[in-house]
Amino acid sequence: MPVFTPDQLIAEVNPVLESQEPGQTLWISETGGLTQFGALIEVLQPGCRSSIKHWHSDEDEMIYALVGEVTVVEGTRETVMRPGDVATFRAGVQVGHFLENRSSSPTRCLVVGTRAAVDRITYPEHDRICLRDRSQPEDIWTDTTGRPADSPY
């Protein structure tokens, strides 16, 4: 059973315009070579979002608040999460969601999701769809009519 310390986690640093400190994605699943589900710790600086509003056709997601307060936006509903709170997003539910740190301190959340062989990620406020086929090296981006389009990121 491999055990990894925090300094061994694969880290992505996400520069943030609104903050002098970057956000971070600390990959647990990639560090351990897991393929059936994704697991990470998302560190959001004050004023930052985890992503733009989206929903998945074939992948479930779960968020567990570890440190600080973070707001979950799902559709038009906003809910503040505190340490120990959990949010779940079922595959195929056509309501977009994201996390936003509206507090004055960094937040940390454990994020876990299934890894479907194929997933369609819809970004309803950006007229974009990401077609993810894990057997292919790159995602394919289209608008909602199916025409090729750039990533909204």
TrEMBL record:
MF term (GO), any: metal ion binding
Keyword set, alphabetical order: Metal-binding
Position of the signal peptide: none
InterPro entries registered for this protein in UniProt: Cupin_2, GPI/OXD, RmlC-like_jellyroll, RmlC_Cupin_sf
SUPFAM superfamilies given in the database record: RmlC-like cupins
Domain Cupin type-2 intervals: 41-112
Keyword Metal-binding: yes
Protein name: Cupin
Origin species: Variovorax paradoxus
